[in-house]
Design goal:
mainly alpha, two-stranded antiparallel sheet, 7 helices, about 70% helix
Length: about 290
């Protein structure tokens, strides 16, 4: 301030009014309120995250349950379709056991209904009709059984010939697959091809004669009772074909030739590769 020998300008002086005084307790209370507010919002955010997580888990659980229910329905429908297919087109022993079980169940239900609702002559007539229906169903199942046996027999022969004609293979040190054909596998493959040609009936007469000639030369490489019988049957079919006998009259003869040739293939003396597939290696006497 201005005094004797000292001048201080007051142009920049400001008038300051005193404000509200805040005590230490008030200051700490305001900080505490701010901390509580922050904690409240933080806990709200964490609660929202937890609720969202639980909601997502619930949605995933419901979706999984829906998928499982859908899968169960599809599996049940697939089982019903498979059972219906097995009823309409049986192939294995289990399929026929299922058919006979269903037939027996149906017969018992029908018989129980007849015994509970009819009496006297009407009951006997209904039982006779039921027996006739059951007989027809059994005959139908029997026809399907014959068809399935023929198909399974053809598949078994095909698998057997494929195994005989398959080359030997093994894996090298670097994992590469190595296949090798021996003279036995090559002969087995030739016999397989000849068997397929013998059983192909939709060929012309000239092609059939060519196949029979090749078959005759193949079996004449060995001498025995089986080969002699096959040669005789081949000559008989050739003679009948030259006489223009109907194809339907040659079916039995051709089936006999095919059966004997399959026996020829299954003999280790004529087809050495088959020895590893036979459960019992029987000695064939020429």
């Amino acid at each position: 301030m201005t005094g004797i020998g000292c001048y201080i300008s007051c142009l920049d002086d400001k008038l300051v009014a005193p404000g509200n005084y805040i005590t230490a307790d008030e200051y700490h209370d305001s900080r505490l309120s701010a901390v509580i507010c922050l904690q409240a919002w933080a806990r709200r955010w964490l609660a929202q995250q937890a609720v969202d997580r639980l909601r997502r888990q619930r949605d995933l659980r419901l979706a999984w349950l829906e998928l499982q229910e859908k899968r169960r329905k599809e599996e049940k429908e697939e089982q019903l379709r498979d059972r219906r297919r097995r009823w309409m087109n049986p192939r294995s022993r289990a399929d026929f056991n299922l058919l006979y079980h269903a037939l027996e169940k149906w017969r018992r239900e029908e018989e129980q209904q007849i015994n509970s609702s009819l009496r006297g002559a009407e009951r006997k007539a209904a039982l006779c009709s039921l027996l006739q229906q059951e007989t027809e169903f059994i005959q139908t199942i029997g026809r399907h059984h014959i068809i399935a046996n023929n198909e399974n027999y053809d598949k078994a022969i095909k698998n057997f010939l494929d195994k005989c004609a398959a080359p030997h293979w093994w894996r090298a040190a670097k994992g590469r697959l190595i296949e090798v054909d021996t003279e036995h596998t090559i002969r087995a493959r030739k016999l397989q091809d000849l068997y397929k040609k013998i059983n192909t009936l939709t060929v012309s007469q000239e092609q059939r004669l060519h196949v029979l000639t090749a078959l005759k030369h193949t079996v004449q490489e060995h001498h025995g009772q089986l080969t002699q019988e096959m040669v005789g049957l081949i000559d008989r079919e050739v003679d009948l074909m030259r006489r223009e006998v109907k194809e339907t009259n040659l079916e039995g003869l051709r089936k006999r030739i095919s059966t004997l040739f399959l026996q020829f293939i299954r003999t280790p003396v004529f087809n050495p590769e088959v020895a590893k597939l036979l459960k019992v290696n029987s000695d064939f006497r020429l």
